[in-house]
Design brief:
Oligomer: heterotrimer
Strand order of the largest sheet of chain C: 1-2-3
CATH class of chain C: Mainly Alpha
Order of helices and strands of chain C: EEEHHHHHEEHHHHHHEEEHHHH
Radius of gyration of chain A: 22 Å
Structural class of chain A: mainly alpha
Strand content of chain A: under 5%
Number of strands of chain C: 8
Strand content of chain C: 5-15%
Number of helices of chain C: 15
Shape of chain C: globular
Structural class of chain C: alpha+beta
Chains: A mainly alpha, B alpha+beta, C alpha+beta
Shape of chain A: globular
Mean pLDDT of chain C: 85
């Protein structure tokens, strides 16, 4: 039981609520918090990417809405809300409506599994790492449905098929890397994995499995459809790929899911390899001040949250820098990369992890 | 073998470094409505007509590639929606009654406003 | 999957409105999975009747329109047209006009290739080089704006010379540009040339065999990338190309990558030519006339002539049949992109959809030039 939950029960017990209601309300609060967090992150990320890409291409980027364009994405979202919802004539209407949800909901759900700090995670599971990857595989199905149901638009269809193709190719090496992490930490629980990396920067799993980090990073690029692997919506080939026929809020959902996925996968990379919410040194800044126990606990949670976001930010900046620099790979080259290079390498990485684990046991 | 693997990685890293270096260079964006580009003197913009100089020779009509763009009757009129800003009429005007201005923001909300009309024999 | 078991193929309509067809080209692709079986380019969406237009107006009226044939290299079009008339009327332009024409055309070649470079990398998915290329191109357009009064539709050449004189300030500006350009180009090459992703997208993709290239009468960089060293500037030197030292870059493999390399090298050579012209213009900045000031009423040529120019996309010809009036009785344009666009079925067959744009982009096709 985390500290926040105890505080929450303390607060609510004033009103003498039944216990089951308190229990349900806790999840509802968490859900609302996560939705707000996600929306804010996405709004920020979209703006940040535009500004960041503009920085590298010697432009200014959006600067009209609000102070230096800070409300640009809000304005875009409002515009999308008022857009006409166009449905192609031959579209499979049920799937056409369903597929944005299939893409969006699992990505949102995954946010609940991430340990944002030692006290704040919504859903605790002993095999959250498995759940994480299982949920992240679902959006590809949604993308396939979106492509299939777009009323015979071949661009969309090809985009949808491509997403499934790269899902299968990238899932295998990334799961093999995950296996090595599970072996190293001895747990499938993300919060335990993070706890095992605490102490100092040297305990992070990037050092025993740098290879795994590289593979997982590139595989996560493939899973989140970012350049240089954005085949499902390769703009210059498939116009907009699977979301060719989508407009208005349905398009916004795809858009939201894409950026939420970018964030959550970067966060997963941080959790798995870069120590998650742990500070890079062996103490927390909060400890430098003399605080009472409860205040310290609260502030440490915020500091941990800060470290997680900070590290995730660095990963996201790297992802966006890669987007700015490189052309798109070809689909079959990516398959070759995954099947012929990454899978053998990740098996090799697994062996290294086993050996390290074994050596640690001996020493 | 090792080179075969590391050279591409090195090149990829070099690409990133060039992109990063470009980020530090100065900005090139022009914030359009506030900052406008200074146009050069011989810029071919909106056409100016001086009725005092005009001798109604009709050369401008003859050399204009957009048929129907210029017309001379009671009025001298140029349809700016058809004008392609080639500058032929200005160049071949024998008395320099036509000249270019540097004005280039010519968007109008009504099409009629695009037709430049000027009376030739106004106050005489 | 075996081809014979899967009889149903997909038809994919790329275009007429597509981000990478650079205009309104429709490519009707027959796909088996993602592999292209057949491509049929369908053109004509941008047909403006450029040839018929010439017959309705006088020679002078047609001159500004000519720039619109290829909006990225307007100087070349107007030169080809004027070259034909000048041949008919036996006009020899003053030397300074020739130098100014050369320098503008070479700058225009650079600007056209820069736009191609940016768009080509955009087609491949790289975003940043697009902006870097446009920043460089903008500098050239500024020079053109000062010189000719317009950024793209110049209408700068006239019968027997050019319209405005070049001044010292402008020469200095060109010199600054030409000085920096090689450095900038080096940056492009560092960024792109050895990028493994770029190489995997372009090398040995869309190979244009020499024989095919000759059969389709392809010209320009596409031909030279296939190993045939043909360039009008060397073979039949016009303007002042005889006095100028430059090389014609060529490559043997004929794939997309070599087409890219040839174009980048061509920009370097153009920069060299610009520098040599600058030297001459600096020493002869004054006292020479740039224009013969031909009486417009006397433009009534008779006979047939062909004006030719090596445009950024290849050999551009303008055939004029004149009948002694002030209107040409027939004008025929041979534009290089028209021949390149037909290649697409030949060289993009049996590649993936992803390769279609990398191959098509490498041909440097400009749609208004195809449809005219």
């Amino acid at each position: 039981m985390s500290l926040f939950y105890l505080l929450y029960i303390e607060c609510l017990s004033f009103w003498k609520m039944p216990e089951w209601l308190i229990f349900i309300m806790w999840y509802i609060f968490n859900f609302i918090l996560i939705v707000i967090l996600m929306l804010l992150t996405v709004l920020f990320l979209v703006l940040f990417e535009r500004k960041y890409l503009a920085f590298y291409t010697r432009r200014i980027g959006p600067d009209r809405a609000g102070y230096k364009g800070c409300f640009q994405t809000v304005a875009d979202a409002i515009k999308l809300l008022f857009k006409e919802n166009i449905i192609p004539k031959n579209a499979d209407k049920f799937l056409f409506f369903l597929s944005p949800l299939i893409v969006f909901v699992p990505v949102l759900t995954v946010w609940a599994l991430l340990p944002f700090s030692s006290g704040f995670y919504t859903f605790h599971s002993c095999c959250s790492i498995l759940l994480f990857m299982a949920f992240l595989a679902i959006p590809a199905i949604g993308i396939l449905f979106a492509g299939y149901s777009s009323g015979g638009n071949n661009f969309a269809l090809i985009g949808g098929i491509r997403s499934c193709m790269q899902l299968i190719a990238s899932e295998i090496p990334s799961f093999l890397v995950l296996a090595s992490i599970v072996i190293l930490s001895g747990s499938m629980d993300l919060s335990v994995i993070v706890k095992n990396q605490s102490g100092s920067i040297l305990n992070w799993y990037i050092f025993p499995s740098f290879l795994g980090f590289t593979i997982f990073f590139i595989c996560s690029l493939i899973i989140m459809n970012r350049l240089p692997f954005d085949f499902p919506e390769a703009e210059s080939e498939l116009v907009a790929g699977y979301n060719c026929e989508y407009s208005g809020m349905k398009f916004a959902m795809f858009f939201l899911a894409e950026y939420a996925m970018t964030f959550i996968l970067s966060a997963l990379v941080v959790v798995l390899f870069l120590g998650g919410y742990n500070a890079p040194f062996d103490f927390y800044i909060t400890d430098c001040f003399n605080l009472s126990v409860i205040l310290r606990e609260i502030f440490i949670n915020f500091e941990q949250f800060f470290w997680l976001i900070f590290k995730t930010g660095i990963i996201i900046m790297l992802i966006m820098l890669i987007r700015a620099a490189y052309p798109r790979l070809r689909t079959d080259k990516t398959l070759d990369l995954c099947w012929y290079i990454f899978i053998p390498l990740s098996i090799f990485n697994l062996f290294i992890a086993i050996i390290i684990k074994y050596m640690r046991g001996i020493l | 073998m090792i080179n075969e693997f590391f050279n591409p990685v090195k090149e990829l890293a070099k690409g990133l470094s060039i992109i990063l270096k470009n980020g530090l260079k100065n900005r090139v964006t022009l914030k359009y409505p506030e900052e406008q580009e200074k146009v050069r003197n011989n810029f071919r913009g909106k056409i100016k007509y001086e009725k005092d100089k005009c001798i109604k020779c009709g050369n401008c009509i003859k050399v204009c590639p957009a048929a129907g763009c210029i017309s001379i009757n009671e009025y001298f009129s140029i349809d700016m929606s058809q004008c392609i800003f080639c500058g032929n009429c200005v160049e071949y005007c024998p008395v320099n009654a036509l000249s270019h201005t540097v004005e280039y923001t010519l968007a109008q909300s009504k099409k009629d406003n695009l037709i430049l009309k000027e009376e030739i024999y106004g106050n005489d | 999957m075996n081809n014979s078991t899967l009889k149903n193929t997909t038809i994919l309509n790329v275009g007429p409105q597509h981000p990478s067809t650079h205009g309104v080209l429709r490519l009707k692709c027959e796909l088996n999975g993602e592999r292209i079986i057949k491509i049929e380019p369908i053109i004509g969406y941008l047909h403006r009747g450029m040839e018929k237009m010439a017959e309705t107006g006088s020679y002078l009226q047609y001159l500004p329109v000519v720039d619109r044939i290829d909006y990225l290299s307007g100087f070349f079009c107007s030169f080809a047209y004027l070259d034909a008339i000048e041949k008919l009327m036996d006009i020899v332009c003053p030397l300074k006009a020739l130098y100014i024409r050369t320098i503008t055309m070479e700058l225009n070649r650079i600007s056209s290739h820069l736009l191609w470079l940016g768009c080509y990398l955009m087609d491949l998915g790289a975003t940043s080089p697009f902006f870097y290329a446009f920043i460089e191109r903008e500098k050239i357009l500024h020079i053109f704006e000062k010189l000719a009064g317009a950024r793209m539709m110049y209408n700068y050449y006239t019968l027997g010379g050019v319209k405005n004189d070049i001044n010292k300030e402008l020469l200095g500006e060109i010199k600054v540009f030409a000085g920096n350009f090689n450095k900038q180009l080096k940056e492009f090459e560092d960024l792109i040339n050895n990028n493994p992703i770029f190489i995997s997208r372009t090398a040995m993709i869309g190979v244009l065999e020499q024989e095919t290239a000759v059969n389709y009468s392809v010209t320009g960089a596409n031909l030279r990338a296939s190993g045939i060293l043909k360039d009008l500037r060397k073979d039949f030197p016009y303007l002042i190309y005889k006095q100028i030292e430059f090389d014609i870059p060529y490559k043997k493999s004929g794939d997309s990558y070599s087409r890219y390399i040839v174009r980048v090298k061509e920009m370097k050579e153009s920069c060299k030519i610009v520098n040599q012209c600058l030297d001459w213009l600096y020493s002869n900045i004054e006292d020479l006339k740039i224009n013969l000031k031909i009486n417009t009423a006397k433009i009534k040529p008779e006979g047939e002539a062909i004006g030719q120019v090596e445009s950024p996309r290849g050999l551009m010809l303008c055939y004029i049949c004149a009948d002694g009036t002030n209107k040409p009785s027939r004008v025929k344009w041979r534009t290089p992109s028209f021949y390149s666009v037909q290649l697409i079925n030949e060289i993009a067959k049996n590649y993936l959809v992803s390769d279609l744009m990398s191959i098509f982009g490498s041909l440097d096709v400009i749609m208004p030039e195809v449809d005219r």
